[in-house]
Write a structure and sequence with these properties.
There is one protein chain. The chain has one domain. A hairpin with a 2-residue loop joins strand 3 and strand 4. The strands form three sheets. Strands 3, 4, 5, 6, 7, 8 and 10 form a seven-stranded mixed sheet that branches. It has a two-stranded antiparallel sheet with strand order 1-2. Helix 4 runs parallel beside helix 8. The chain is an alpha/beta fold.
């Protein structure tokens, strides 16, 4: 049986409205080894070290995630997955979470369901989230928005490339197709691409139906999650909106982000960039992210 959260987390969109499925982390950061051991390009920095190196060498995808505590700061380095979530739960069960006020995170994303579980935990327990290296995909969608105060270290970035609501948005640019039409077709293509042995078998239709039903349930949970945060979640799909889609695709960037002022307009609060440089002028931002400027 295919893991739904992992299946959903592999979606990214590119090139003139055509949808292609890739593993999200693969386009941005090195994958962990087939054995599941940690792929670590750089040793964990000290609690207050602010890295300025290239984001691709800094962003972490430890599998499972590395979790540790220093003073009032909880560190989360790596992927968002079922195993990482289980390890996280075990870790925080053994500490006094009332003394933890800051989460320092470095993650390329992962499983959407466990991203929301982590986000809900952050909402209830963390005052400050600070991004080191990068926070992309499910990390940016669900964990970054959940903390009351948000900081981005110098040279780090927060990037989005879509969410479970993206097909509804993409349908706005494709006449005569609904989000469900697009999603159903993409589920079929993704399943055949990932599991070619299913092509032409009776199991394919059943798997498409099962994935579609579970995906709709996950979409409802995403809507509920953003409702709990008092957000509409549009920042997760902005680059796919009709007025931005063509320019985003033409940019050939890995995702998009916003100025700090526009993040505040989107409901993310006063995000602090820990540098004298403008956030959108950093090398990592310009290399990987398309800047979306909100219309007045």
């Amino acid at each position: 049986m295919i893991n739904l959260g992992i299946f959903l987390s592999v979606v990214i969109f590119c090139f003139a409205g055509l949808l292609k499925f890739h593993q999200a982390e693969q386009i941005l950061i090195p994958l962990s080894s087939p054995t599941g051991s940690s792929t670590e390009i750089k040793a964990p920095p000290s609690q207050d070290e602010h890295s300025t190196e290239d984001a691709e060498s800094d962003i972490r995808q430890d599998s499972p995630a590395t979790i540790r505590l220093e003073g009032n700061t909880l560190f989360y380095y790596g992927e968002i997955s079922e195993v990482s979530w289980a390890n996280f739960q075990s870790f925080v069960a053994d500490i006094d979470t009332t003394k933890v006020s800051r989460l320092l995170i470095n993650s390329g994303g992962g499983d959407t369901r466990y991203g929301r579980l982590l986000g809900r935990w952050v909402k209830e327990n963390i005052d400050i989230i600070e991004v080191q290296g990068g926070c992309f995909s499910s990390c940016a969608n669900y964990i970054f928005p959940a903390a009351r105060e948000k900081r981005i270290q110098e040279g780090a970035f927060v990037g989005w490339h879509g969410s479970e609501a993206q097909f509804e948005v993409l349908a706005l640019s494709q006449p005569n197709q609904t989000g469900e039409d697009i999603f159903g077709a993409e589920i079929k293509d993704a399943l055949i691409s990932a599991f070619p042995e299913l092509d032409g078998t009776p199991e394919l239709k059943a798997e498409i139906s099962r994935q579609f039903e579970q995906s709709m349930q996950s979409l409802q949970d995403e809507r509920q999650f953003f409702n709990e945060l008092g957000l509409d979640g549009k920042f997760t799909v902005y680059g796919l909106m009709p007025e931005y889609l063509a320019a985003y695709e033409a940019s050939d960037k890995r995702g998009w982000s916003f100025t700090l002022a526009d993040m505040e307009k989107l409901g993310l609060g006063k995000v602090k960039y820990l540098s004298d440089q403008r956030y959108e002028d950093s090398d990592s931002f310009k290399k990987y992210l398309y800047l979306i400027t909100l219309h007045p």
